[in-house]
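Example (one chain per record):
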Amino acid sequence: MTTDTVKLLDVVALIVDFPQYNLWRGQVGTVVEILAGGTAFEIEFSDRSGRTYESLGLRPEQIMVLHFEPIAPNSTTARVTA
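Predicted structure:
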């Protein structure tokens, strides 16, 4: 994933497990801070009531941006492929 595709307030999902924080692949969070010039991001994980249960600094290769609208085939947005 390229860092220019991750923006403040993007909704992201983990693509790795963090058992020490009780966070697992697929859990969804929000980018709340851009760190180290865009080489890392503070991700906030909240419950359905909006209460934060974990906040963690992560690298771009540990997350994927979720999209709620179609992405154009020629988009520069990084895609995860199997």
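Caption: The chain is about 0% helix and 35% strand.
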